[in-house]
Design brief:
Elements (H helix, E strand, L loop, with lengths): L2 H23 L13 E4 L12 E2 L55 E4 L3 E9 L4 E10 L4 E12 L8 E13 L5 E16 L6 H5 L16 E18 L2 E6 L2 E7 L3 E18 L17 E20 L3 E19 L2 E19 L8 E14 L5 E10 L5 E11 L3 H4 E3 L4 E3 L5 E12 L4 E11 L2 E3 L5 E3 L6 E14 L2 E12 L9 E13 L4 E12 L6 E3 L4 E3 L9 E12 L2 E8 L11 E3 L2 E2 L4 E11 L1
Antiparallel strand pairs: 1-2, 1-3, 4-5, 4-35, 5-6, 6-7, 7-8, 8-9, 9-12, 10-11, 12-13, 13-14, 14-15, 15-16, 16-17, 17-18, 18-21, 19-20, 21-22, 22-25, 23-24, 25-26, 26-27, 27-28, 28-31, 29-30, 31-32, 32-35, 33-34
């Protein structure tokens, strides 16, 4: 669907949100002035009527060149695959088509703002191979209690090899409102995300690349010449909350200027609607790449569509001002349809889950900067398609007077495997399975010392019935033993001596089974000089970013599935990617010059990101990030 229609739908949703908030404002008559930074934001998980955990808008010069944090684990047109394992926290339905998520927007990443003055941020990056990264943020408070924000992101690149064109368009709107008397609040957002990427299946002959021959990369033979992937996501979300508690006076000097309730208890209603699509098309089949053709030997047009609606109620009470209890129930309904062509429907399934959650923990307050904070809880599918899915957690945090923190977490997850593993039908792949639920038990502990810019953390994950794609592109479950273990250790330490800095992130990880392939070491370093030039009018940073991972049999990518699978043919890694950067900050503008992969051609040609898919060559990029207040 064209972007104009998507914008029209987005504006309709925005108007509904605005009308709802305007109506609620009529009920308020108090006037309270609060002092806070010019612009700051929070995410829903940190929202509280007692005081949300706000984060200031980033105005620092450090790291401005890392505008796309994951740009060295894959090319812009290659589906994302993280270099470390993250335990699952979701239960219920999951489609499994999420390898492009790092490029697009989703509800969990939405930010809500408040601004004392209208704030606009314009960010543009221009590079070789027609790479463009454009981002726009505008937020302003319509009133002291009501804020709106608009985010737009566009990424475009044609790549170094044939069929690497990609276009990524994202737009999101968010709004938040809290009444002056603390009686009511609303959070709402809507987003549209569309990603289109050509697929080349990798280069045909790795030796042309590995021998470092002076060959035009655009002339190298590729495996797929007519393939394309499309991912689309549209979401709308709103949460209304009513608060109850004792009234308290708001003082200015010796005078009472207004009254408001202390929001000790609340009831909330939320709804979330989404529409997602993953599609793979091939206008003319490239013979030899796919072993099976089930429907059409001339072209492929596979797509998976999911529509979902969820709504639920939640109640929160506070006991003795110290203990917070949350309880809620949510109904989720979803429909999934798979097509091989526009008119040929091969699968039409419906899913329904009733999810119950309860959480007990300490009543955290943004003004409380030290102490012991804890939270334990359980979410489970009471009845429905995924009945029995279960998530139990316990999070504990010790914060000391000097700002040091000790974090301890334990999670148990019992979840249904993603849909793509159990049932998939397409022109090249077809299976129907009934895998048992996967069990994950994870424990982690960490220590953070902000004064010395040091943190260390470690964890262990135990997995049973782990499902993956093997080297034949088929979903299988690990049965080598009752379970296998994943271990990890993360170390962060930054050094600074006068005008020089040395930032370090080191990850070590190990897996007791050969079905989860990850590098044993992942290193990220930055070495730089910083200072003030031109009579201290310009802040300057110049240095190198270095990214390295040890050798391992990295998973290969199958375009028609949009999934990664195990391979035993090629060991990748053991190669450093080095960037040179020069950053400047002049008042509200930040500018950077970057030579990405500056060591290309000097340290061999073994920088594959995935089998048959080389990483990007050396490229020059220039970026400007400008902030406008009022």
């Amino acid at each position: 669907m064209c972007i104009k229609k998507e914008l029209k739908r987005l504006l309709i949703f925005v108007s509904i949100c605005c009308n709802s908030v305007i109506y609620c404002q009529v009920l308020d008559s108090t006037n309270l002035v609060e002092k806070y930074p010019l612009a700051e934001y929070f995410q829903e998980k940190n929202f509280s009527q007692n005081g949300s955990l706000y984060n200031p808008i980033d105005t620092l010069l450090e790291g401005v060149q890392k505008y796309f944090p994951n740009n060295f684990t894959y090319s812009l047109n290659l589906a994302g695959r993280k270099l470390h394992f993250e335990p699952l926290t979701e239960i219920g339905f999951r489609s499994g088509f999420n390898n492009l998520d790092l490029f697009g927007y989703n509800k969990e990443a939405i930010k809500y703002y408040r601004a004392r003055t209208p704030y606009t941020e314009v960010f543009g990056v221009f590079g070789m191979k027609k790479e463009q990264f454009s981002k726009l943020l505008h937020t302003q408070n319509i009133t002291k209690q009501w804020n709106i924000a608009l985010n737009m992101l566009r990424i475009r690149s044609e790549g170094f090899y044939q069929r690497q064109n990609c276009t990524d368009n994202n737009i999101s709107f968010s709004t938040n409102y809290s009444s002056k008397n603390n009686r009511y609040s609303v959070l709402a957002n809507a987003l549209v995300s569309s990603i289109k990427s050509d697929e080349n299946g990798g280069i045909k002959y790795d030796t042309l690349f590995e021998d470092n021959l002076n060959v035009n990369k655009k002339l190298m033979p590729i495996n797929l010449k007519n393939s394309r992937t499309k991912s689309r996501n549209r979401e709308a979300y709103m949460k209304h909350s009513l608060y109850f508690g004792k009234k308290e006076n708001i003082m200015r000097g010796d005078s009472v200027i207004s009254k408001r309730i202390r929001p000790d208890h609340s009831i909330s209603y939320s709804f979330h609607a989404s529409d997602e699509e993953f599609a793979y098309t091939e206008s003319l089949l490239d013979t030899g790449f796919y072993k099976n053709v089930f429907f059409d030997s001339i072209q492929t047009k596979d797509s998976t569509h999911t529509e979902a609606f969820a709504h639920g109620f939640e109640a929160q009470i506070t006991l003795f001002k110290k203990i917070k209890i949350d309880a809620g129930v949510q109904q989720k309904n979803r429909r999934l349809v798979q097509y091989n062509f526009d008119s040929l429907r091969v699968l039409d399934s419906s899913f329904s889950d009733q999810i119950v959650n309860i959480e007990i923990g300490s009543n955290a307050n943004k003004n409380k900067s030290k102490g012991f904070f804890w939270s334990i809880g359980k979410r489970y599918v009471l009845k429905g398609t995924h009945e029995g899915d279960d998530f139990i957690f316990g999070d504990f945090k010790f914060i000391f007077k000097n700002g040091q923190k000790i974090l301890l977490e334990h999670h148990n997850v019992y979840h249904t495997v993603p849909f793509v593993f159990n049932h998939y039908s397409s022109n090249h792949f077809w299976w129907k399975e009934s895998f048992l639920k996967t069990k994950e038990a994870s424990t982690s502990i960490g220590f953070h010392n902000p004064k010395h810019k040091f943190s260390i953390s470690g964890g262990i994950v135990r997995m049973v019935n782990y499902v993956y794609f093997d080297s034949t592109f088929s979903p299988v479950v690990y049965r080598g033993s009752d379970a296998f273990l994943y271990y990890c250790l993360h170390l962060h330490k930054n050094f600074h001596l006068k005008h020089f800095g040395f930032n370090n992130k080191i990850t070590w990880q190990d897996v007791s089974a050969d079905v989860l392939r990850l590098p044993k070491f992942v290193l990220n370093h930055s070495v730089y000089y910083e200072g003030k030039w031109f009579k201290k009018a310009v802040d300057v940073q110049a240095g190198f970013d270095i990214t390295y991972c040890s050798s391992y049999f990295a998973d290969a990518y199958m375009p028609a599935l949009g999934q990664y699978y195990l391979q035993n043919e090629k060991e990748l890694g053991n190669y450093p990617f080095i960037d040179f950067f020069f950053n400047m900050k002049i008042k509200h503008a930040r500018v950077f010059f970057k030579s990405e992969h500056v060591n290309s051609g000097f340290m061999g040609a073994n920088y594959f990101l995935s089998p048959h898919m080389p990483g990007p060559d050396r490229s020059i990029k220039i970026g400007v990030k400008w902030m406008f207040f009022d």
